[in-house]
């Protein structure tokens, strides 16, 4: 269905996706839902539009609970009949009269983009209508930009280019954007465009299937995919086989071995280590490993060992009002580490208590020293602050980290290090290789870093195994606590966590640990029914639902949508953002570290209000004002993934455990250890056994441990 009319005003626009709700004054159509203002509401992805601009829309009439609207599939960039062409040119924004617009269409025809883009367009227009060449140039620029936006958006949408990508390209290249897209399609990867989309554009524009740029781009994309699974490198054979398979799927093309070898050799974004087998890295991840090892050596070499003796520990115990076990007292010896020390142990072993005493002991030895406490997520940092009585921040906030485009970022480093003599980092298993490299680079020489964590929990979301490899290197002092204290050793939560960790699926039920069996198809309903009974409007954070996966039965998307409908069916205000709906009163979680805005990855809050330009979120009494164009940094949080919950604790936890490929022992162990008071484990048939028996997360492909050894041996030599 085609409708036309004059653009009236924008009611809502998502800058990232381009999704817009706007009103339009229809012309010559038989729409039966025109309001008292003579407009109809339209929804769809649109380029920038101007007040009173004449537009031609393709789409369909739809209905919602708020009435009918026109769903826009496309804003047509071409006007094939004279009247439409005249109305477009006579749009108020372009600054010409209806008569002048009619004159131009009669003179040059309805293919406006063709004649407005001609080299002599300015002279032609100033000759045809009574305007100066300066005025004609303004008209040409405005009309051409409007039409070009529509053309480029339509072209990009058909080829998988997101609105925000097209917007950035238009901002950088203007009306050269099409030439850039067609001429250098593989360069679009730096804007987050998939290899498949880049490749389709390249082939469409005549690129050879055996173009070296194509193969080099493919190799980089395969390595990036491998990094999302945690690996730092791929072997030569693996990279070739995966690349060959991907190329065959995409274009039914065989990857010649000679072309593969040449592409690897000449690709300046890759590093090849000639070993048996050869290892291939992206240069950025290779450099992060190298840097991590060098920074550990620097901190070791510049260390000023503390004069710790047991007597200092005894005084620190009294200051903190605790009595440490012999094992915990021995752990204080980590204060004598050169540069970096590691404290590890399972839930309830007293890692936090040891850290408190350690801080008190350090203050005795270095009375005027500065201590910084940090953790990878906002909730983990707050937990650390609560348990130690000291200020704690996210690692990103401590580093004054500011993200940038294409992987660029600003943060503390060797030239401007963190001003601290002792840095305590909690939840070390959450730190990926990239963050570990940045963190160590920002520690000043002579300082001591203590990294605490549970080595049995799931590994970092990002690539590498920073915490595990530092331990495996054998070059960094490690103390492991084994004796359980928290919630007393008889707690069913602790007992079952230890059982899971040791490979037993025979879980003991008690008042604080319940197992509910559910059919796979009904697991979401079972979880939500139980959660609704737990829900307390005055304390929405007393319960948290956890799940290993995002999609599918029992996944967080399905559970969140269902919980939203159960707990918040009639919100005061609501907003649709892409395929996500946010309501006032919804429980939400932030997905990124944004110190400049006052929130961190993992922070939870409640939507307080939804405005025209921002959403207000109550986060522990602090109001966060999130711009509507940043809603991709927000997600419903009635249910969150186990990975997202790592580093947090909740009074009561419901675990959704459907049968899926994500079932692993360390994921179930991590989920169980998030609860302080009670757990309800809703499990599909056989899912507990599957998770417990799957202990092979698989060693991540990383060479950090070896590099640390090499650096330390080199140093010793």
Gist of the model:
It contains 26 helices and 28 strands.
What does this structure look like?
- With 717 residues, the protein is α/β, with parallel strands linked by helices.
- It contains 26 helices and 28 strands.
- Strands 11-10-14-15-9-16 form a 6-stranded parallel beta sheet.
- α1 (82-89) crosses α2 and α4 (121-128) crosses α5 (133-157).
- The radius of gyration is 30 Å and the shape is globular.
- The mean pLDDT is 89.
Q: Quick check: average pLDDT? A: 89
Described by strand count, sense and barrel closure, the largest sheet is: 6 strands, parallel
CA-atom Rg in angstroms: 30 Å
Compute the number of helices. Answer: 26
Shape: globular
Strand order of the largest sheet: 11-10-14-15-9-16
Hey, roughly how much beta strand do the residues contain?
Answer: 15-25%
Proportion of residues in helical segments: 25-40%
Query: Low-confidence parts lasting 5 or more residues at pLDDT below 50?
Result: none
The CA-CA distance between the termini, in Å, is 78 Å
Strand segment count: 28
The oligomeric state is single chain
The structure class reads alpha/beta
């Amino acid at each position: 269905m085609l409708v036309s009319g004059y653009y009236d005003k924008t009611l809502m626009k998502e800058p990232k996706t381009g999704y817009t709700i706007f009103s339009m004054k229809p012309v010559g159509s038989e729409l039966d839902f025109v309001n008292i203002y003579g407009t109809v509401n339209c929804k769809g992805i649109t380029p920038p539009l101007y007040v009173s601009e004449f537009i031609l829309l393709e789409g369909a009439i739809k209905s919602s609970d708020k009435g009918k609207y026109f769903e826009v599939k496309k804003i047509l960039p071409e006007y094939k009949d004279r009247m439409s062409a005249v109305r477009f040119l006579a749009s108020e924004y372009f600054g010409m009269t209806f008569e002048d617009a009619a004159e131009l269409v009669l003179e040059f025809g309805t293919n406006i983009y063709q004649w407005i883009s001609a080299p002599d367009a300015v002279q032609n227009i100033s000759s045809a209508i009574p305007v100066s060449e300066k005025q004609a140039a303004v008209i040409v620029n405005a009309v051409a930009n409007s039409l070009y936006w529509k053309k480029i958006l339509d072209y990009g949408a058909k080829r998988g280019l997101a609105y925000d990508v097209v917007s950035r390209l238009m901002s950088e290249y203007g009306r050269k954007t099409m030439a850039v897209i067609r001429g250098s399609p593989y360069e679009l990867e730096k804007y987050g465009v998939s290899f498949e989309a880049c490749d389709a554009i390249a082939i469409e524009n005549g690129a050879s299937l055996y173009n070296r740029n194509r193969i080099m781009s493919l190799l980089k994309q395969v390595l990036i995919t491998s990094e999302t699974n945690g690996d730092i490198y791929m072997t030569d054979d693996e990279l070739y086989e995966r690349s060959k398979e991907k190329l065959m799927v995409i274009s039914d093309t065989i990857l010649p071995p000679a072309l593969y070898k040449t592409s690897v050799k000449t690709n300046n974004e890759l590093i090849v280590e000639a070993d048996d087998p050869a290892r291939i890295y992206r240069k950025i991840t290779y450099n992060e490993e190298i840097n991590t090892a060098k920074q550990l050596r620097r901190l070791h070499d510049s260390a000023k060992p503390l004069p710790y003796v047991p007597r200092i520990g005894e005084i620190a115990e009294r200051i903190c009002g605790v009595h440490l076990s012999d094992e915990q007292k021995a752990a204080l010896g980590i204060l004598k580490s050169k540069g970096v020390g590691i404290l590890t142990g399972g839930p309830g072993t007293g890692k936090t208590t040891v850290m408190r005493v350690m801080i008190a002991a350090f203050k005795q030895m270095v009375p005027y020293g500065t201590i910084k406490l940090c953790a990878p997520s906002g909730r983990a940092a707050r937990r650390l602050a609560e348990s130690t009585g000291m200020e704690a921040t996210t690692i990103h906030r401590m580093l004054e980290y500011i993200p940038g485009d294409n992987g660029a970022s600003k943060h503390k480093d060797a030239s401007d290090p963190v001003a601290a003599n002792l840095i305590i980092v909690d939840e070390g298993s959450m730190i990926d290789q990239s963050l570990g490299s940045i963190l160590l680079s920002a520690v000043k020489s002579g300082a001591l870093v203590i990294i605490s964590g549970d080595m049995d929990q799931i590994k970092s979301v990002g690539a590498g195994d920073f915490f595990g490899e530092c331990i495996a290197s054998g070059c960094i002092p490690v103390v492991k606590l084994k004796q359980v204290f928290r919630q007393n050793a008889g707690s069913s939560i602790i007992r079952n966590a230890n059982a899971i960790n040791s490979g037993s699926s025979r879980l003991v039920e008690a008042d604080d640990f319940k197992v509910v069996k559910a059919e796979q198809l009904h697991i979401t309903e079972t979880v939500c029914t139980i959660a609704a009974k737990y829900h307390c409007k005055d304390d929405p954070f007393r319960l948290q639902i956890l799940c290993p996966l995002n999609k599918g039965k029992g996944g967080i998307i399905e559970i969140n949508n269902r919980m939203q409908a159960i707990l918040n069916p009639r919100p005061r205000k609501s907003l649709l953002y892409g395929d996500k709906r946010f309501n006032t009163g919804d429980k939400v979680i932030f997905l990124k570290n944004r110190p400049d805005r006052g929130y961190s990855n993992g922070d939870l809050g409640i939507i307080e209000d939804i405005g025209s330009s921002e959403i207000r979120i109550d986060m522990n009494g602090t109001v966060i004002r999130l711009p509507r164009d940043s809603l991709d940094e927000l997600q419903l949080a009635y249910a969150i993934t186990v990975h997202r919950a790592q580093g947090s604790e909740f009074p009561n936890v419901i675990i959704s455990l459907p049968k899926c490929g994500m079932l692993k022992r360390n994921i179930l162990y991590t989920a169980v250890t998030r609860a302080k008071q009670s757990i309800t484990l809703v499990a599909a048939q056989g899912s507990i056994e599957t998770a417990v028996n799957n202990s092979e997360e698989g060693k991540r492909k990383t060479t950090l441990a070896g590099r640390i050894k090499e650096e330390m041996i080199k140093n010793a030599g």
